[in-house]
Amino acid sequence: xxxxxxxxxxxxxxxxxxxxxxxxxxxxxxxxxxxxxxxxxxxxxxxxxxxxxxxxxxxxxxxxxxxxxxxxxxxxxxxxxxxxxxxxxxxxxxxxxxxxxxxxxxxxxxxxxxxxxxxxxxxxxxxxxxxxxxxxxxxxxxxxxxxxxxxxxxxxxxxxxxxxxxxxxxxxxxxxxxxxxxxxxxxxxxxxxxxxxxxxxxxxxxxxxxxxxxxxxxxxxxxxxxxxxxxxxxxxxxxxxxxxxxxxxxxxxxxxxxxxxxxxxxxxxx
Length: 270
Known about the structure:
The protein is an all-alpha fold. The protein has helices at 2-28, 41-90, 99-124, 137-147, 154-182, 187-206, 212-237, 249-269.
């Protein structure tokens, strides 16, 4: 429902841009009429050809940059969740002598997942304050609980080694996730694409077109396309809110599974 509301919001914005663009063409055309206006079309054509190529290169570069970072961040979060699930699954190999240690580690994993979903997710969604990538207290607790697992045989040693490796992977993935979340497009590049977008759109209002309908169509189509392109780049550059945002459903599902397992263990003990 929320996603549909966001899509409707951007749809209304695009319609508003198209209407505003058409109104501007109607208002500007009478003030741009001069002798030789139609003859200047060839000069405008050369301008749009050169400027359009440069604009396409810059816009394409920025779009690929934010899309690549968005994909890398989404994959890193998925890998981090897989590392949490691997640590939880490795606890199955421990015997009854490790029940209490396994319970403590499982609780630490649940606390870490909850902290990511609440505290860290909110921090990553705030572009004004970069998230601290230093080891969190919840991650330290996972390490402490892992260190307290007793080793009673060769199998326990192998399982504990696998758990430690997964914890190390978890720490690396958390750091990478935060680093990707803290990245933003450089302000100068954002300013460049904004100025080029305005120049490109403004040029189409000044070009000489005999047909009013054709002028409105060209200017409106370009304005909507440039606005949508700029909006997509901005949206992907802030991947924790907007229409194209990181899907946190797997994270919420993992929290629910931890809660269900915890409730089941309490029922079994009762």
